């Protein structure tokens, strides 16, 4: 029998979620009358068929990486910041407000729009934190409620004060002035500025959580907030700061969506990246070094899955099924592993 602490057991526990996902999705494809191997090949081909497509992986990966970096902070404190989706939207609103309010050259406009995104997301994160710490509202419900408020506010602004001169439509506001556009790599939709910002963010979060006293305090709060408070840790203040920093990074994601991808504010500016970032962080096991490869994997599926509709007449939402199934089976396997280890003790 393989010992539960052996290398083979650990490797098996790591591989099991992917094997279970492969089996489950393959059965679904067979029921739908499709060849599973051809479907997977189409997803891979759709993601890597050209340099432009590979750049699209970076485009999808930037907001996901920024939101995931923020989620690492709140998860470290034991906080389920479901409101990260609304914080992405708030960041886009903050950046749009700056762009609508001032006229300046690019070297002024772009940094100010970034700051507007950081501020908007941080404010929305602070609201969730205040409801959690002083209002006694669970952060899950507070975050979900504020997500709907952010979406409603976006629609109001697009169809109200910020509507284009020709009339409001679901395509969003009028395009931003060119001075507010993030520069792109030639022939692609990828911005080197946003890529650098996302990479700096995940590296900074890694070192903050691993090598700083504040990171240690957050982990203590996450393990047991009452014990941390009795040890002299200001739990309320640190929780609020965690929400603010997570919101700021999510807001930066929203600002990049508005200024680098769409170059305007649209109703669905968040793209669901807030919810997806939670799957990324759960799959990483709250380990920052794993976040980047998982983000690239998820972004590749997102970019490649539309090809299923073009080639196999399958719904592209299969990509989302793949992403969610991996996380579901990962959590299931981890639960089984903990039960086995508890039984051994």
Written account of the structure:
The protein is mostly helical. It folds into two domains: 1-34 and 314-345, no CATH class; 53-311, ABC transporter involved in vitamin B12 uptake, BtuC (Orthogonal Bundle). It is 75% helix and 0% strand. It contains 14 helices and no strands. Helix 5 packs across helix 6. The protein is globular. The two termini are 17 Å apart. 45% of the residues are buried. The mean pLDDT is 90.
Topology:
Layout lengths: L6 H25 L4 H13 L2 H26 L7 H18 L4 H28 L5 H21 L32 H20 L1 H11 L1 H6 L4 H28 L10 H12 L3 H17 L2 H6 L5 H27 L1
Helix pairs in contact: 1-14, 2-12, 3-7, 3-8, 3-10, 3-11, 3-12, 4-5, 4-6, 4-10, 5-6, 5-10, 7-8, 7-12, 8-10, 11-12, 11-14, 12-14
- Describe the sheet with the most strands: none
User: Can you tell me the residue ranges where pLDDT is under 50 for at least 5 consecutive residues?
Assistant: none
Total number of beta strands: 0
Average pLDDT over all residues: 90
- From the N-terminal CA to the C-terminal CA, the straight-line distance is 17 Å
As a whole number of angstroms, the C-alpha radius of gyration is 21 Å
CATH class division of the largest domain: Mainly Alpha
The CATH architecture of the largest domain comes to: Orthogonal Bundle
Percentage beta strand: under 5%
């Amino acid at each position: 029998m393989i010992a539960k602490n052996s290398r083979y057991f650990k490797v098996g526990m790591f591989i099991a979620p992917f094997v279970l996902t492969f089996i489950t999705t393959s059965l679904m494809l067979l029921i739908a009358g499709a060849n599973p191997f051809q479907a997977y090949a189409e997803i891979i081909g759709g993601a890597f068929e050209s340099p432009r497509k590979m750049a699209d992986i970076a485009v999808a990966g930037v907001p996901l990486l920024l939101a995931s970096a923020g989620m690492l902070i709140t998860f470290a404190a034991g906080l389920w910041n479901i409101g990260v989706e609304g914080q992405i939207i708030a960041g886009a609103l903050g950046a749009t407000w700056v762009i609508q309010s001032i006229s300046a050259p690019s070297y002024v406009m772009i940094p100010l729009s970034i700051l507007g995104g950081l501020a908007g997301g941080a404010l929305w994160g602070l609201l969730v934190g205040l409801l959690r710490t002083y209002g006694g509202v669970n952060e899950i419900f507070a975050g979900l409620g504020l997500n709907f408020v952010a979406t409603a506010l976006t629609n109001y602004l697009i169809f109200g004060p910020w509507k284009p001169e020709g009339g409001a439509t679901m395509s969003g506001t009028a395009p931003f002035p060119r001075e507010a556009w993030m520069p792109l790599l030639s022939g692609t939709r990828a911005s080197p500025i946003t890529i650098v910002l996302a990479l700096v963010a995940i590296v900074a979060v890694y070192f903050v959580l691993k090598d700083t006293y504040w990171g240690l305090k957050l982990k203590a709060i996450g393990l047991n907030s009452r014990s941390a408070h009795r040890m002299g840790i200001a739990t309320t203040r640190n929780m609020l700061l965690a929400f603010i920093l997570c919101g700021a990074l999510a807001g930066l994601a929203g600002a990049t969506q508005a200024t680098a991808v769409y170059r305007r504010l649209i109703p669905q500016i968040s793209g669901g990246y807030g919810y997806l970032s939670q799957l990324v962080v759960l799959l990483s096991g709250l380990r920052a070094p794993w976040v980047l490869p998982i983000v690239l994997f998820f972004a590749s599926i997102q970019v490649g899955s539309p090809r299923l509709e073009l080639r196999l007449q399958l719904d592209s939402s299969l990509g989302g099924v793949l992403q969610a199934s991996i996380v579901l089976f990962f959590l299931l396997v981890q639960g089984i592993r903990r039960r086995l280890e508890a039984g051994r003790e």
